[in-house]
């Protein structure tokens, strides 16, 4: 969750800095000087929307290492048997998936793992000490396969493109609404006034929240695909099912009778729409019904 939050914060920060810079340079004033120039506004929105996303993607590896304190393992000289096993397992999974061997790292923390990086052949797979200590080797391997599947599926790049598209719409629509409010409500007929800038700021916040629901929905779908990818790379679905059950605080093999939870923590309401991961029971159910090739 920390890396997702950092991605969103970094992306929004870059977008706001770019927006403010272009505003200082007079681009906003140029767009609205003689009526709203929709073509110029669209170009402006594309620049602001996608630049932030791609900068976030390009710095995702160092940001992930910094935010988690992950220590990258030396593939040529592992310090112990656990490190040697981790490196060998990730490398075998990467070879099976047809991608370049990623960096492998360990970080201190509760049971979890993640993959990140801008390119399939230059990525990072990190696993927490909590996960290594609480799972069997087969379960850890299934989680690693899930992360390798993320890389093989190009999920980081696809998520960046989705984020860029929704950012573009946020910037574009906020300014269209701001221009309309400035003219219709504040009766400003020359350039743009305070009503425009206030409306743009408010709309960017509101539209940004709505856009994050779209990005979260896509993120949940890619988790299902990565679970299926883990089953494919492992040759069976059971290891990932047991790993998910362990992560969900359930005893391996013990599954709930209902899979109707609406959030990753089992809570309902609005929070479920913003969750980057589906409920673990739903992921287990999807794996049980999936075909493993």
TrEMBL record:
Binds 1 zinc ion per subunit. Residues 81-289 form the Peptidase M48 domain. One of its GO terms (biological process) is proteolysis. One of its GO terms (molecular function) is zinc ion binding. The keyword Transmembrane helix applies. It is a multi-pass membrane protein. This is Protease HtpX homolog. The chain crosses the membrane at residues 38-59, 159-181, 193-218. The active site is at 147. It comes from the Bacteria. Pfam families: Peptidase_M48. It comes from Achromobacter agilis. Zn(2+) binds at residues 146, 150, 223. HAMAP family: Pept_M48_protease_HtpX. Its EC number is 3.4.24.-. Keywords: Cell membrane, Hydrolase, Membrane, Metal-binding, Metalloprotease, Protease, Transmembrane, Transmembrane helix, Zinc. The gene is htpX_2. One of its GO terms (cellular component) is plasma membrane. CDD domains: M48B_HtpX_like. The keyword Ligase does not apply. Belongs to the peptidase M48B family. Its cofactor is Zn(2+). It is found in: Cell membrane.
């Amino acid at each position: 969750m920390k890396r997702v939050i950092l991605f969103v914060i970094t992306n929004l920060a870059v977008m706001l800095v770019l927006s403010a810079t272009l505003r200082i340079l007079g681009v906003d004033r140029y767009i609205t000087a003689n009526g709203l120039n929709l073509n110029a506004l669209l170009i402006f929105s594309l620049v602001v929307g996608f630049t932030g996303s791609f900068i976030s993607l390009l710095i995702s590896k160092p940001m992930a290492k910094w935010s988690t304190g992950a220590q990258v393992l030396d593939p040529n000289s592992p310090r112990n048997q656990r490190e040697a096993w981790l490196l060998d397992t990730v490398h075998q999974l990467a070879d099976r998936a047809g991608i370049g061997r990623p960096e492998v790292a360990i970080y201190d923390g509760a049971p979890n793992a993640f993959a990140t990086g801008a390119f399939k052949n230059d990525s990072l797979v990190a696993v927490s000490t909590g996960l290594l200590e609480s799972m069997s080797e087969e379960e850890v391997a299934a989680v690693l396969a899930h992360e390798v599947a993320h890389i093989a599926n190009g999920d980081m790049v696809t998520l960046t493109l989705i984020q860029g598209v929704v950012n573009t719409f946020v910037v574009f629509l906020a300014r269209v609404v701001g221009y309309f409010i400035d003219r219709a409500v504040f009766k400003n007929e020359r350039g743009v006034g305070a009503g425009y800038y206030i409306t743009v700021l408010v709309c960017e916040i509101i539209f940004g929240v709505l856009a994050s629901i779209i990005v979260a929905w896509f993120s949940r779908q890619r988790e299902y695909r990565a679970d299926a990818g883990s089953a494919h790379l492992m040759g069976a679905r059971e290891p990932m099912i047991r790993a998910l059950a362990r992560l969900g605080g359930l005893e391996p093999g013990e599954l709930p009778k209902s899979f109707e939870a609406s959030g990753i923590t089992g809570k309902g309401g609005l929070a479920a729409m913003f969750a980057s991961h589906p409920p673990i029971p739903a992921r287990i159910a999807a794996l049980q019904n999936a075909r493993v090739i």
